[in-house]
Amino acid sequence: MDYIQTSATIGSIVIIILTFPLSMLFCFKVVQEYERAVIFRLGRLQDGEATGPGIFFIIPCIDNFSKVDLRTESFDVPAQEVLTKDSVTVAVDAVVYYKIENPLHAVVNVSDYSRSTKLLSMTTLRNILGTKNLAEVLSDRESISHSMQSMLDAATNPWGVKVERVEIKDVRLPVQLQRAMAAEAEATREARAKVIAAEGEMKASRALKEASDVISENPAALQLRYLQTLNTISAEKNSTIVFPLPMDLLAAFTTTRPRS
């Protein structure tokens, strides 16, 4: 096998020399700063590591290479219909952000790291949601996202993939359940409003009782309150209003003085 590889390499180099300088167009390749090249010579991994960035040399006919993009990529996880722990059917979708950490593993250990990561993301999302009840799915999205990110990162590590972030996008509930939850929320708000109104009435009653106690202790305060009410009404209304005059106001004038 080594003899065949050596002979093929020598033959390719001879062809390069004979076709120089035209052959140089096929021998030099360039990868960008955010790319790496994994080179194979007659099916064997060359140099044991990825090449790049910059220019590199290959031998036509016996060398081939695969480019790997190291930038962060994202994909949408399609909505997954899942039966939660408390037997409620929900549809949940998400978005996953990942990048390649090891170009060699991404090329050698898996045939299509992007497709494999997508399929694994759908399965992982279903598995996690199956262990949660509806309240946890609606309120603990951050916890679900973190759990999914950790599980995906551990599973894709042999593929050279680093899962950086997972976000739950939307949780869709059945229409009947939405109506039931809306009715329950409305009933809760009405009950809370009635309690608040009752507490207000109770506080107002206590305040009125305290005011009446204060006024009853001092008759002059009652007369002042009466005059204040007359003043307020006269300022707001332009019509003529007839009020009965309390006899207590005339008591000072109707008292008969003793004759000398």
Automatic annotation (TrEMBL):
<dbReference type="InterPro" id="IPR043202">
    <property type="entry name" value="Band-7_stomatin-like"/>
</dbReference>
<dbReference type="GO" id="GO:0005886">
    <property type="term" value="C:plasma membrane"/>
</dbReference>
<dbReference type="Pfam" id="PF01145">
    <property type="entry name" value="Band_7"/>
</dbReference>
<keyword id="KW-0812">Transmembrane</keyword>
<keyword id="KW-0472">Membrane</keyword>
<protein>
    <recommendedName>
        <fullName>Band 7 domain-containing protein</fullName>
    </recommendedName>
</protein>
<dbReference type="InterPro" id="IPR036013">
    <property type="entry name" value="Band_7/SPFH_dom_sf"/>
</dbReference>
<comment type="similarity">
    <text>Belongs to the band 7/mec-2 family.</text>
</comment>
<dbReference type="InterPro" id="IPR018080">
    <property type="entry name" value="Band_7/stomatin-like_CS"/>
</dbReference>
<feature type="transmembrane region" description="Helical">
    <location>
        <begin position="6"/>
        <end position="31"/>
    </location>
</feature>
<keyword id="KW-1133">Transmembrane helix</keyword>
<dbReference type="InterPro" id="IPR001972">
    <property type="entry name" value="Stomatin_HflK_fam"/>
</dbReference>
<dbReference type="InterPro" id="IPR001107">
    <property type="entry name" value="Band_7"/>
</dbReference>
<feature type="domain" description="Band 7">
    <location>
        <begin position="26"/>
        <end position="185"/>
    </location>
</feature>
